[in-house]
Design a protein that fits this description.
This protein has one helix spanning about 1-35; strands at about 40-45, 50-55, 60-65, 70-75, 80-85, 90, 95, 120-125, 130-135, 140-150, 155-165, 175-190, 195-210, 215-225, 230, 235-240, 245-255, 265-270, 275-290, 295-310. By secondary structure, it is mainly beta. The chain has three domains: about 1-35; about 35-95, SH3 type barrels; about 120-310, Lipocalin.
């Protein structure tokens, strides 16, 4: 009887092992078959990236129909990753990237939010530094600082910001809101050392209309500075328009309400690679002379570098 039980157990074990092996093979075949006729992004171990429709796939190779190279066969051992694209965005025979930075313009936020786990570091004009993190698909947090030294004094500005994407049922319109805290530490070294602090809290609401490739945002913000309410809210209008494969045109304008002659604006371009974005253009601002109502305009070159971390980007 004992030998019979042992034989039965051995038979069951072999059957289960065989079924498990068959299931693994079937899953691999299903994954291969499920990609057929899909538009995919294939990243190679040597850094090359191919976009196209999957024509054939097995355990060793994948056959891809590309726009520029035609039909190509790729050894799977040379592939780093394969990801599905919602659509192949092409214009005049050139692939246009969907991997654009959309949660902010130069400085101003849009209503688009980072996805959970997305992180990037941004540097503006060398002195400005910030880190932004997607806490969830609808909530992100940011912190940054600017430090510089001039004749006889030093200043350190730092801030934190949280942004929430408000769910609404619209594919073309997006809504967001957030809170912003900023502080400026100023140390004077002329005569004697003295440390002063200026700080404020600001809340804002922003609406964005359009797709992630082409959109316009309008934001209204209001808050306090050193315990006093500001004279009026600040209106911001910004836009992003994809003008080439991985390059977008950006503009950003601030108007201080009630309407007066104070303005701050940016205009330029941003180029987005997989993990790096570079923005460049001009910043223009005006300031009132010490006497009278005359304003002078100043224009400076602007550049910023963003580095993305993690594997949560497209």
């Amino acid at each position: 009887m004992t030998r019979i039980k042992i034989c039965i157990y051995r038979g069951l074990f072999r059957m289960i092992s065989l079924l498990f092996l068959i299931s693994i093979i079937d899953v691999q075949n299903i994954n291969a078959q499920s990609r057929l006729k899909e538009t995919s992004r294939v990243e190679m171990k040597n850094g090359n990236i191919h976009h196209g429709d999957v024509l054939y796939e097995d355990e060793e190779i994948i056959e891809l129909s590309t726009l520029i190279l035609g039909t190509i066969k790729i050894q799977k051992k040379d592939i780093l990753s394969i990801s599905k694209l919602k659509r192949l965005n092409t214009r005049k025979g050139q692939y246009w990237s969907n991997n654009l930075m959309t949660d902010r313009y130069f400085l101003a936020p849009s209503a688009f939010n980072l996805k959970r786990g997305q992180i990037y570091y941004q540097n503006n004009l060398i002195a400005g530094n910030l880190v932004s993190v997607g806490l969830t698909d609808r909530i992100s947090a940011e912190g940054g600082f600017v430090g510089f030294q001039d004749a006889g004094s030093g200043r350190l500005s730092y801030w934190t910001r949280i942004k929430v994407n408000i769910p609404i049922q619209s594919e073309r319109f997006h809504l967001g809101a957030g809170a912003f805290y900023a502080s400026i530490l100023h140390e004077s070294t002329i005569g004697f050392s003295r440390l002063t602090r200026n700080e404020g809290i600001n809340i804002y609401v922003v609406g964005t209309f359009g797709s992630k490739a082409n959109h316009v945002s309008s934001a209204l913000s209001y808050g306090t500075w050193n315990g006093y309410w500001e004279d009026g809210p600040v209106l911001n209008v910004s836009g992003q328009f994809q003008v080439y494969s991985a390059t977008s045109f950006l503009f950003e304008v601030y108007t201080f309400l009630p309407f007066n002659l104070r303005r701050l604006g940016f205009i330029g371009l941003r180029t987005d690679w997989k993990k790096v974005s570079f923005s460049y253009g001009l910043a223009s601002f005006n300031r009132r002379e010490s006497r009278g109502l005359d304003y002078t305009f100043n224009t400076l070159p602007w550049f910023g570098l963003s580095i993305r971390f993690g594997d949560h980007w497209e």
